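In this section we walk through a basic example: taking a raw amino acid sequence and producing a predicted 3D structure, encoded as discrete structure tokens. The instruction is simple. Fold the sequence below.
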Amino acid sequence: MVAHPSRIEAGHPMALELKQAPKLVQQLVITPQLQQAIRLLQLTRLELVDLIRQEVKENPLLEESEEGKEYAEAEETVTEQSEAEPIPENQKTQEVKGEGEGAAEFDWENYLENYNHGSYVKQSSQESEERPSFENFLTKRTTLSDHLNWQLQLSHFTDEEQKVGWWIIGNLDEDGYLKISLEDIGSETQLPLEMVERVLRRMQQFDPVGVAARDLKECLLVQLEQLQVRDPVAEKIVAEFLPLLKNRNHPAIARRLGIPLERVNQAAHLISKLDPKPGKAYGGDVIQEIVPDVYVYKVEGEYVISLNDEDIPRLKVNQLYRSILTDGRSVLDGDRKYIQEKLRSALWLIRSIHQRQRTVYKVASSIVKFQRDFLDKGIQFLKPLVLRDVAEDIQMHESTISRVTNNKYIHTPQGIYELKFFFNTGITSTQGETLASESVKNLLREIITKEDPRKPYSDEKLVQILKEMNIHIARRTISKYREMMKILSSNERRKIQ
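The resulting token sequence is shown next.
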């Protein structure tokens, strides 16, 4: 209640007036469409094919087509329907990423950082015929340790911080949780506890977000902190009321927080979208066939990029169902609503697939531009490259680049490589040139392969050999690279000869 002096009357020391003040509330909306777009970016080609075939089974409006000509017409149909049925004001949101259910309501250009649609190039039949056979190429699935070590090397950590990072990665369980105390890490590394805590906080922001958490509460809080729009209610529930949330006792949470039950339900729905086991996706020791997502050919001195669209179904919208919405025939409201929902879902899937392919193409194009010397001359000419370089080049976020490059392969004139292979830190030579760490590793491998089995090179000797080649790196770096390549020490190599 607010007192207003202008309303003070005789006989009344003070008159009181009730006022209502508007309150602006910002809510995070994670729609199924947004979840689908993010999921498609991370899928491998084979996983994408499986998802498409499953969607075709579940959605009667989706059909496989060689041409897919009906997409534009169908988009006009659903747009007309959306205009005929405006969204109520109480259902609108200020969050641009994922609001609404119609095909024309989602700002794809904003979500995928103004991607140039004209850069996508489909494969030609000639290119398909020229593709090399890859049936005999097998690869081991990327482990959580591999994925985190890769990010650790590309982050701006000091040598001491990297040491802490290796200890953290080495003590994660299959779900991605840290199973050693920070005090023990500090004791083993002989580094300050403050440094250990700082490195842990930074690594918890790695992909997958929430990895290296010490318990479920910390894991979920880290993920909530990374959302574009923070939800203080969800964070409060995770921090203080996880047991009640587990038992679905939402009314009790609402009473203790003093907020409406509907608001608790909204927060609980958001929490349910988080990943309680961020490391689980990288578990297992599966051996699988490499199927390149991208092919790179050299034609008349220029590199041509072609996406592998083989076996990816071409989708279209069923003509019969679409005509029901356009020819004015009498249809029950429930049936019409069902068809509209399925039409929107079909168009979202088609659009998401197209956008996913374009994004992969653009990332691959940027990598080819940066690594042209490697494509021309081999691994010794691989350039240092970090996620930020490609992100700035194509005007996308680093997290998008990380999703696109995860578990995807490219066939080049130099062989088949994971897209992640092209991202590595740099080492400065004595002549001022910067060499990629992968190039140095490959050089080390060659030197060790040619050594005398009776007198294998020590790490100190390898330092000297590289120094003579104008590459100056520390002995501990040699040891680290050797361990990463699973090469034994000189004494152990001598024993097995």
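Looking at the output, two observations stand out. The domain at 426-495 is CATH 1.10.10.60 (Arc Repressor Mutant, subunit A). The chain has a mean pLDDT of 76. In the next section we compare this with other chains.
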